[in-house]
Amino acid sequence: MSIVESAGQVLREGAFGHATGLACRECGHEIPLGPNYACPECFGPLEIAYDFPAITREEIEAGPANIWRYKALLPVPSDIEQSPNMEPGYTRLLKAHNLGRELGIDNLWVKDDSTNPTNSFKDRVVACALSAATEFHSKVFACPSTGNLANAVAAAGARAGIKTVVFIPANLETPKKVNSAIFTDSLIAVNGNYDDVNKLASEIAGEEDGWAFVNVNVRPYYAEGSKTLGYEIAEQLGWRLPDQIVIPVASGSQLTKVHKAFQELIKLGLVEEKPYRVFGAQATGCSPVSVAYKAGVDAIRPVKPDTIAKSLAIGNPADGIYVLDICRETGGAVEDITDDEVRAGIVLLARTEGIFTETAGGTTVGVLKKLVETGQLDTSLETVVINTGHGLKTLDAVTELVGAAATIDPSYDAFRASGLV
Ligand SMILES: Cc1ncc(COP(=O)(O)O)c(C=O)c1O
Ligand SMILES: [Zn+2]
Q1: pTM of the model
Q2: What is the pLDDT of residues 345-391, one digit of tens each?
Q3: By CB atoms within 10 Å of each CB, which of 17, 178, 359, 387 scores lowest?
Q4: DSSP labels, 329-362
């Protein structure tokens, strides 16, 4: 690979695959690739622009069983498999017979991203952010996080041998804190909510040289990792888009990128064009996008989060307005449920499909149920629900709900006397 100058940085040619620059989502202004995330003209969010090659299904299918099978559609070099990373993705898509029967949905699938290396979909975005941070010669790999991202950044940094510093709200669940601290000695708990942590991270990114905040100054590269969720769903359905998809919303990045992935697959001729409906899921205690959707307004009013779904507790979502656009344009909706319904959603998925999801998944499954009950979701259409994280990270949310074990003496009589069977 030869060397090229771009945005004052020395970049290897081909280091970003088929990416050609950064384009503003609002005004379309393009700038060269670099560690930038806001449009210099209008401060709108920057996204990766590409000149995609012609690519076939067979070429993708011949790739590795992880997100790098889609490397031609990501801002990463063609030899990305050679650099140490967590190799996330290609998680299972399970037919949810029992949950479908319970909810009256004929054809339901669960895309289970809790089986990624650090047990959430965040390993996907971090893999792309790590590749960009490496190209920008970053000294520190960092993030503000509601928990899962911190886990993924800390683990990926450890494996790549890069220093990590992760910032979280101080009141996060203990398992998520331990899951970061095991990989890095620089876990910083901030007295405040996620939006305070995010503000601090932006300030540090502006002051310190050589820090790659995965979801701040390398956000355009990071966000592309979420597209792989959409690619996989289509490929695992036999190169077909689902009719309906339900996705949890915090910043809204994941939902917008799954939609982007579907659109790219159509443009590349890898799937047939068809209508599909996108639904967003939030917990009522932090539901600024759902509130705006229901009010029929375009502006999202920031809120102070108060919910057990802490991974979704972003009161001022960066991509909220785009979530609104996508859900409206595709004929979907944004819905929210109470914390009790979130807990019930976790138990419902566990008892029907044997999948233990965290509060974000409880929110998604609970919202799916509410969408059926309120007639917003068409139960005759093929539907995919995404489980984004593992239940062992938010054990406290359901510990009391499921109760203690029935404790008996080790005798057959005691077993019979327990009345359990
Ligand atoms: C488990 C889980 N699901 C969903 C989300 C929402 O992601 P996004 O911020 O892309 O909307 C998060 C965000 O942290 C998460 O941790
Ligand atoms: Zn702009």
Answers
A1: 0.96
A2: 999 999 999 999 999 999 999 999 999 999 999 999 999 999 999 99
A3: 178
A4: HTT-EEEEE-HHHHHHHHHHHHHHHS--B-HHHH
